[in-house]
Design goal:
The complex is a heterotrimer of chains A (282), B (403) and C (323). Chain A is mostly helical and 282 residues long. Chain A contains eleven helices and two strands. Chain B has two domains: 160 residues, Response regulator (Rossmann fold, 3-Layer(aba) Sandwich), CATH 3.40.50.2300; 161 residues, Response regulator (Rossmann fold), CATH 3.40.50. Chain B has a seven-stranded mixed sheet with strand order 8-7-9-10-11-15-16, sandwiched between helices. Chain B has a six-stranded mixed sheet with strand order 2-3-1-4-5-6, with helices on both faces. A three-stranded antiparallel sheet of chain B has the order 12-13-14. The longest helix of chain B has 20 residues.
Chain lengths: 282, 403, 323
């Protein structure tokens, strides 16, 4: 059973990473505790549903469109809502929660309160020694990993990426260097929400869609960024894989609820020992 | 200046509080209020909304037919539906509003938490409450005005009876249940059924309602390798999909109900062969009145019935019958009538309230059960079990039942 | 802030007098408002001292379950059980505070986040003790509190007491110093102010009263479930404080009352409820940046001669256009 569980844990960890990265960036760069992040994940999944199921677009096109559109929605939210409350963490939080309610409620009005599903595009099973995984999940893992690597390289190497890192470390210093704070914020939000939407889009055919599907990943997402360290891409990756694995394994050995308690116990332990997380800076 | 403002504000506060002090308006003799405490927003709202819509249709049909006569007086129903968000604190507030402010005497709610919450004031206030609970605690001899709108535990023996006759190769069973009291209840009944029908129960696995990754659960199933796994409706499509993906090839069945939508959600191949009770509103074996209800639903709301709507529609008709037979709107007497008599039902034939063996008091509506099996992505009708045969099946397993 | 005493007196008298005239349904709503305000006031006090907590609902739940289990399982007198509930919450709060209040704001908030989630799952998981998701029922009523009115006065007294206590805690030299330092602990060190012990004391008290209010709720509602004390309930409490306004100790009560009123009013609107709720929140946050409690101030400024009558709207437009 062990290889099977490890593979499942890796799979859920990878998707969790895609999701949590946006959360981490939103906190590290924009200083928002983005409670609405789960809603962007949900929008990504529904975007594919509308595109692929309702309008009959090819699957890949639906995913791409969904990710871009949700990224744009994120940019609008940042620009016209969050930016006015920069630095005011509490107001930002209330805004994010209100945004989440509006998006969930809006989706109920658009798509109905019933669960929806997206038919699998990549059917079949991948048989590995000691473990099996649906082709759909395999594709999700591959795409997710590829995009993570791309984003990581982008943030490390590219000019905009360096601007982003500089801005998150020291806003004033960055401004003195001629970095446009507004542009950085826009880019960060686009990346973050886009990645969350991608996570939702990839998980869409694997899970059941509901306007409230973003709630659970959100809780785990917070656990991930605490463990990994806010604002650190490597930290988010490592944290997500660890939490994905721990959850799957303890759910098998014990039960899912105890697994959840243990994950959050780890969160508190990390805060006790190294609050900034595995790879974070204080 | 600030002092004057202060005085003004306090006068304003008093003025705002005054309407709250008003006594409820006297109820008109001709209207009987039916209260609904349902999740109309939030994750479970699709069931709550279905119940509300079905209630509206039922009441519309009854009222348009001239209402109903109780003890020589003609009545019409008035529906008051409030959102309890599936939260027990909200249900309590809704109960106060329905019972204290609106003078409602009949309330339908969805599940255990809201029903138990409402009971704290409904039983002392003489209000009849009906829900579809998953645990036994909701209806006990101490709560004579609380009723169960449909069979829940009683379905499992019927399912066992069907598969032991039709799938004799099944010798071992495993229960996959939710990690709460509802799940425990299912496990207790299923274990008793297995003993009664000569099947070996291997184990029970629990999962959380929020689970989206069933790999650990499936791993345990594969370890034990049962002939059959039985599971409830919550989370089923994901469990089914992942079980097949990860290599489980045995039989699968609903511990109680199955949902035709699983074919789209899990894929037609994955659900092939899954059996269980289902709410037939769409095949030609469905009762005519229910087929009409389904048609109305599709026309007005563009969605089909799942399960809550059918049962609520039935509950309202049965309640109306009970009132007519009781000849009085006194809820104590109506409750007695509900427990002791049979009623015509939109499901065809008659239904009655039973279940004394499990609950200590007759309070669960025994309705006819349709058994179906997934074939090529559709639920195919297998057998219709009339209400009284359900009682028989239940009695067969009672000697083995430990709660 | 001498006005605070006046306001407290006026509010107390108004609420005391209205009690007997309330029908059962509004009476129930007020009881809920009072009990939740106690917890929200705790959030308020900790915010004034530079710490954000989203654990208040969990402590309320601990008090509720602690008190309820004492009475139902061990047959302890309900009044004593309430006290035990409060103490259980207080002790846990003190432990957490003593170990973790040294952390910077965001980290402490995340700890309370973890505590809230763990509490919820623990209450659900160990169902053979707590009743699990189906909840704990059959809780006895408080002896010698006969009617709903009795619970009304009990909760009102609790809330007023807490408001008075927290006001003075906040207003003490140390409290004022902590607030004016804006939760900048380095500066506090340089000023010779030790925020830590004061924060631990305050947090313990805040948790004690949250537990107390939870226990009172348990004996009032006589049925409790874990889903009444989740992280989201705590986040709502924070929202009530922000909506009501942080500048005044009455902010939490005002915010709670307004949002409860909104919730009750929205019960008939079904699917639109979260939409309207969310839009209202955004509107209040944008238009009343200091919270609703600043309305009297805003009004008194408008009423001064020489102010443009619709200057408020022009200001708003400019705020929205600002980039």
């Amino acid at each position: 059973m062990l290889p099977q569980l490890l593979l499942s844990g890796l799979s859920s960890g990878l998707i969790l990473c895609l999701f949590a990265l946006g959360l981490s960036l939103a906190f590290g760069v924009l200083h928002i505790v983005n409670f609405a992040h789960g809603a962007f994940y949900m929008l990504g999944a529904y975007g594919v549903w509308f595109g692929f199921v309702r309008f009959g677009l090819p699957y890949g096109v639906a995913v791409l469109l969904s990710v871009i559109l949700v990224g744009l929605v994120g940019i609008l939210c940042e620009r016209y809502l969050f930016r006015n409350f920069r630095g005011n963490l509490r107001m930002g939080m209330v805004l994010a929660i209100a945004l989440m309610m509006i998006m969930e409620s809006g989706m109920v009005l658009l798509a109905g309160a019933e669960d929806q599903s997206i038919p699998s595009v990549f059917t079949g099973i991948v048989d590995l020694p000691g473990a099996r995984l649906s082709t759909e999940s395999m594709v999700a893992m591959a795409v997710g990993a590829a995009l993570l690597a791309t984003v990581a390289v982008f943030v490390q190497r590219s000019k905009q990426g360096r601007a982003l890192r500089g801005f998150s470390q020291d806003e004033e210093g960055a401004a003195l260097q001629g970095i446009d704070g507004g542009r950085v914020c826009t880019l960060t939000m686009f990346l973050g929400c886009g990645l969350a939407a991608l996570a939702g889009a990839l998980m869409g055919p694997i899970l059941i869609l509901s306007p409230y599907m973003g709630g659970q990943p959100l809780m785990l997402g917070f656990a991930v960024i605490v463990l990994g360290g806010m604002g650190s891409i490597l930290g988010t990756f490592v944290g997500a894989i660890i939490i994905g694995m721990v959850q799957t394994l303890t759910a098998y050995v014990l039960d899912p609820q105890l697994a959840y308690i243990i994950v959050f116990g780890i969160l508190i332990l990390v805060l006790l020992i190294k609050p900034a997380g595995l790879f974070g800076h204080a | 200046m600030k002092r004057i403002l202060l005085v003004l504000v306090s006068i304003l506060m008093l003025a705002l509080l005054l309407p709250a002090c008003a006594a409820p308006p006297p109820s008109e003799a001709k209207v009987l209020k039916l209260g609904l405490s349902m999740p109309l927003s939030g994750p479970v709202s699709f069931i709550g909304l279905e119940c509300q819509r079905a209630s509206e249709i039922a009441i519309e049909e009854i009222n348009n037919g001239g209402g109903f006569v109780v003890g020589g007086e003609r009545y019409k129903w008035e529906l008051i539906a409030l959102d309890d968000k599936f939260n027990s604190a909200d249900a309590l507030a809704v109960a106060h509003r329905l019972i204290d402010a609106e003078g409602v005497k009949y309330i339908i709610t969805l599940a255990d938490a809201s029903h138990l919450s409402i009971q704290t004031i409904s039983e002392p206030a003489g209000v009849i409450t009906i829900s579809y609970p998953g645990t036994k605690d909701v209806t006990t001899p101490d709560t004579p005005l609380s009723f169960r709108g449909t069979a829940t535990f009683e379905v499992t023996p019927v399912n066992y009876d069907w598969f032991t006759r039709n799938l004799p190769e099944i010798k071992t069973v495993m229960n996959v249940i939710t990690d709460d009291k509802a799940g425990e209840g299912v496990q207790a009944v299923s274990t008793a059924c297995a003993k009664a029908f000569g099947i070996e129960t291997l184990d029970s696995i629990t999962y959380s309602r929020a689970t989206t990754d069933f790999a650990p659960v499936v791993a345990k199933i594969l370890d034990a390798d049962p002939d059959l796994i039985l599971f409830p409706g919550t989370g089923a499509p994901l469990l089914i999909k992942q079980a097949r993906e990860l290599g489980y090839t045995g039989h699968m069945g609903g511990a109680n109900y199955i949902n035709p939508a699983w074919a789209q959600q899990a894929g037609a191949e994955a659900v092939e062969g899954i059996f269980g009770a289902y709410s037939d509103s769409f095949t030609e074996n469905a009762p005519p009145q229910i087929q009409e209800l389904e048609a109305k639903f599709k026309e007005r709301y563009d969605v089909g019935l799942i399960i809550g709507g059918m049962n609520t529609y039935n509950v309202i008709y049965v309640l109306t019958e009970a009132l007519k037979k009781a000849g009085t709107v006194d809820t104590g007497e109506v409750a007695d009538v509900m427990r002791t008599q049979k009623f015509d039902s939109p499901f065809g034939g008659q239904v009655e309230f039973g279940g004394k063996g499990i609950y200590g008091i007759d309070c669960a509506m025994m309705v006819p059960i349709w058994i179906g099996q997934f074939k090529a992505g559709q639920v195919e009708f297998q057998e219709l079990i009339p209400a009284n045969e359900m009682t028989t099946a239940m009695e067969k397993i009672m000697p083995y039942y430990e709660s | 802030m001498h006005n605070t005493t006046w306001i407290l007196a006026v509010v107390s008298i108004v609420l005391l007098c209205t009690g007997p005239f309330l029908a059962p349904y509004p009476n129930h709503i007020f009881i809920m408002i009072f009990l939740v305000s106690v917890c929200a006031s705790g959030v308020w006090l900790m915010l004034r001292l530079g710490r954000l907590t989203v654990g208040q609902a969990a402590f309320m739940g601990l008090g509720a379950y602690g008190g309820a289990l004492m009475a139902t399982r061990l047959g302890v007198n309900p009044w004593l059980s309430i006290l035990v509930g409060g103490l259980v919450a207080a002790i846990l709060g003190m432990l957490i505070g003593a170990i973790l209040l040294r952390l910077a704001g965001i980290y402490f908030a995340l700890v309370t986040f973890g505590v809230a989630e763990i509490t919820r799952v623990v209450l659900t998981r160990f169902g053979n003790i707590t009743g699990g998701t189906a909840g704990l029922w059959g809780i006895p009523p408080l002896p010698s509190i006969g009617s709903k009115l009795g619970y009304y006065y009990l909760s009102l007294a609790l809330m007023l007491g807490v408001i008075w206590l927290f006001y003075h805690l906040n207003r003490s030299r140390l409290g004022l110093a902590l607030y004016s330092l804006g939760s900048d602990d380095t500066l506090a060190d340089h000023m010779g102010v030790d925020p830590f012990k004061y924060r631990v004391l305050s947090f313990t008290l805040v948790c004690f009263f949250a537990g107390l209010s939870g226990a009172v709720f348990a004996f009032y509602a006589r049925y409790i479930t874990p889903d009444q004390f989740t992280l989201w309930e705590a986040i709502y409490m924070l929202i009530y404080v922000i909506i009501g306004g942080i500048p005044s100790v009455f902010g939490p009560f005002l915010g709670t009352a307004v949002m409860f009123g909104l919730t009750e009013g929205l019960r008939v609107s079904a699917e639109l409820t979260p939409l309207i709720y969310g839009i209202t929140l955004i509107a209040i946050v944008i238009f009343f940046q200091g919270g609703l409690i600043t309305i009297p101030q805003m009004l008194s400024r408008r009423l001064r001669p020489g102010t443009r009558p619709f200057g408020f709207l022009t200001q708003l437009w400019q705020t929205l256009r600002k980039e």
